[in-house]
Amino acid sequence: MKNTNSKKRVTLKDVAEHAGVSTTTASLVVRNNPRIPQATRARVLSSIEELGYIYDRVAANMRSQSSNLIGVIVTNIANKFISEFLIGAQDKLEEFGYTVLLGTTSDNATKQQNLISTMVEHRIDGLILNPSSISLEKTVKQLNNLKIPLVLANREMYNIHADYAGIDYEEGTYLAITHLAKKGHRRIAFLGGIKESSTWTKRMDGYRKAFIDHNLELEESTIIASDPTSEGGEEAANVLLSLPNPPTAIFCFSDLIAFGVMKVLTREGKVVGRDVDVVGFDNIPDAENYHPPLTTVSSFPKSIGIQAAKLLHSKIIGESEELQRIILKPELVVRETSK
Fold it and tell me: Which of 23, 93, 111, 168 is most buried (most C-beta within 10 Å)?
């Protein structure tokens, strides 16, 4: 039998709606932020009292003793995708009134482990983590035992209880392969990326699905992993071109991989977009200006950063208790390398 005496816990979102302000404004009021006009502050405090938001207000006041620091750990800020992601995350976090502590792992699992510990020691209020391709088992335990909100971004980690923001890598790859198949390509390589990472696995799921739907025959010899860098793309391309009969089209794990691939193709006397079609992934700013301009999948890194910051802030202010996943839809941008 339903208990009619039970009451739904009042959230900060309820307070914001009652006061006619945004949740962010209500959060700044309970954190005693001086930027809020007195009239607005009074209205929010009145709603807090009327709705009985006593417990959460006390918790918010306790948080005023916190650092207002947010840790953001990424793999490599030299990667344009990562730098765009950081711009989105940092701008939104600063808008919420936080200061960002940045750490870079160089995609190294041990360095990632140490950075997480260091940031926690600095009493950060929350953490946004772009995980390394491979993470240590003790890192999984470490993250699940964190006493602060955690949001994973761009890459997932299995068995981690955290919010997540990213792009639909499977759909993005499916769009790319479908584009090449409709152009008449029957043999399409997949170059670059680290097989152990979730981002590679998701792309491979889309790759296989597209091959099935378009009746293509998958050749394991044309699936070549490498570091997700331009140099990794060169290495993978050299291996591919050493095959007796290389494919006529190449799907690349990232734009950086594609740049390395095109460098090798050009060096070997092949005209990209005529002799071999190439498609990248990410649509970083350099993709449009490359010669020739690169067909690629837009993954909207800046938007992912913004969404990751929103998710973290929502957890910090107690607006949401359930785990959330925000998966953005990719878009294929066709340019000269596969027209």
Answer: 93
